Amino acid sequence: MATLIIGNFDGVHLGHQGLIGCAREISPASEVVAVTFDTHPATLTRNDAPPRLTSNAEREKLLIAAGVSRVESLETTEALLRLTPEEFVAFLKTKFSITTVVEGADFRFGRGRRGDVNTLRAIGEREKFRTVVAKEVDVALQDGTLVSARSSMVRWLLAQGRVADASRVLGRPHRVTGRVVAGQRRGRELGYPTANVAHCDVVLPADGIYAVGVEDAQGRLFKGAASLGSNPTFGDCPRTLEVHILQMPHDSDMYGQPISIFFHRWLRGMMRFDSTEVLIAQIARDCAQVVA
Q1: In angstroms, what CA-CA distances link 269 with 27, 134, 222, 263?
Q2: Are the C-beta atoms of 191 and 284 separated by less than 8 Å?
Q3: How far apart are CA 258 and CA 253, in angstroms?
Q4: How sure is the predictor about 235, in pLDDT bands with cuts at 50, 70 and 90?
Q5: Residue 114 neighbours by CB under 8 Å, 6+ apart
Q6: Per residue in 181-228, pLDDT tens?
Q7: What is the per-residue pLDDT across 251-289, written as a single tens digit (0 to 9) for each?
Q8: Range 169-173 contact pairs with CB under 8 angstroms and sequence separation of 24 or more
Q9: Of 1, 121, 191, 202, which residue is 20 to 30 A from 144 by alpha carbon distance?
């Protein structure tokens, strides 16, 4: 017997966590299954899927940590997306013994997103399962604005550099994972060596300087100051994410290793400095803000 929640669950934010909590509360004895997709459906339907907040592997870990029993990731195919709402539910019933489906009020499913919670409720009455509409989760931002916990809101906040507010909606800091690659070693020359992070698997915030947390391949945690942008002081450079790690052991060699960056606070915007001396003084102030 299974209680289902269905969606993309990108970011596994407080809204998703509220959905899981509702499912657990009304069906304490049932298996709670998160049914999701290996690729965002908009990739096939509109070819404009939004940038990912979490990788598939990270999404599954977060869903399990939030309380689901297991995650069922469906292969996103043209055939799957062509199913009518009734056909999609029939497909799910071949996989699960459904007792309850819990969704938000804005849930849409089936070909062309034609089905909504009313459609789901009507199908459930025929197919002998309950449909429960969970309450929307609202979050207060730093300025007091109340917003709905949605993946689109998290993306918008990140695009504005408002990573602290994004953390409020997510329920944790936004995490970016990549590998450390060789850079131009300018940070080392300035006295502030940086780890250049490439092949990031999710959306990056707006350009700027941030107070961040850093997790290395051994699971060690550090504080850091991250620079995300094109380094205007040194001319036309590609957009780069690099982080100066405070109090990192001198024997650490991160090249080629995976690293995770947790964005905590916006410190300032990117700017061009008139000299390296002025830049160095500003970097010192940035690092002081990280530990303040």
Answers
A1: 48, 39, 23, 15
A2: no
A3: 11
A4: low
A5: 84, 85, 108
A6: 876 666 565 667 788 899 778 999 999 999 999 999 889 999 999 999
A7: 667 888 899 999 999 999 988 877 788 888 888 899 999
A8: 169/13, 169/14, 169/139, 170/11, 170/12, 170/13, 170/14, 170/53, 171/13, 171/14, 171/17, 173/213, 173/262, 173/263, 173/264
A9: 202
Q: Which two tokens stand for residue 111?
A: 């070909």
C-beta separation of 94 from 80 below 8 A: no
In angstroms, the CA 123 to CA 85 distance is 9
For residue 227, with 0-12 CB atoms within 10 Å meaning exposed, 13-18 middle and 19 or more buried, which class applies?
A: buried
Count of residues making up the chain: 292
**CB 7, CB 105: distance < 8 Å:** no
Helix (H) or strand (E) holding 243: strand 240-245
Q: Identify the pLDDT of residue 158.
A: 98
CA 239, CA 77: separation in Å to the nearest integer? 34
In the numeric block, which tokens belong to residue 69?
């029993």
Strands 2-6 and 31-37: parallel
- CA 108 centroid distance within chain: 21
Q: Are 256 and 198 in contact (CB under 8 A)?
A: no
Residue type, position 55, single letter: S
In DSSP terms, 222 is beta-bridged to 214
Q: Does the structural domain 2-136 have CATH classification 3.40.50.620?
A: yes
User: Is CATH 2.40.30.30 the classification given to domain 173-291?
Assistant: yes
- The strand pairing partners of 146, in sequence order, are 140
